[in-house]
Structure formats: structure tokens, C-alpha cells
Sequence to fold (114 residues):
Amino acid sequence: DLQLVESGGGLVQPGGSLRLTCEASTFIFRDKAMSWVRQAPGKGVERISTISRGGDNTWYLDSVKGRFTISRDNPKNTLYLQMSSLRTDDSGVYYCGTAGGTYRGQGTQVTVSS
Fold:
């Protein structure tokens, strides 16, 4: 079974940066494409970025392109999301998970506010 634990969320001012980290419990992580999804208050879950197993292919939601960078360190079983130029509409709970949706972490809150 794959357990995922996110960290790195918090309160940041507009224009600021945060780096989210997702630590996986087993080496199964290395065989999985991974995604970050978020849920804003009162809204549904939206996928914001995906990375292939080897890290050589990535996808981003249009609204985060050029501002967010997804990456992974397979030997460390860790997934990252570097977020910069944050906007108030980036606020929400951010979850990491397998791209197929089978596994998801408990989430970390990101609040962008002045």
C-alpha cells in the first residue's frame, strides 16, 4: 500500500512562493505517474500538474503554467511542487496522489492572502 504525506503549505502573501513536498511510504512511488490536485473552498477538485514516472514529462493546468514546477526525486520517494507568483485564487487544500487516483494524501492547506 502506498501512503502519501504532504507538507509545506501555509499562509503567504500574493506574489510569494511556497514549496510543497509529498513523501511516499514505499518504492511503489517510483513506478507511478504522480499528480498534484487542489480543492478551493466551495469548489471541486482540480488537477493542476502531473509528472511521469521518470520525471521527463510534465503537464500543467493553464492557470499555473510558468508559475508552478512539479518535480520528483525517485531515490527519496518524494514529489515536489514549487509555487511562485502565488495569487489569491491559488488558495486551497493541495493533495498529492497517483495520477490514476488510487492513492492520495491528506492534503496541506495553502492560503494566499494579504
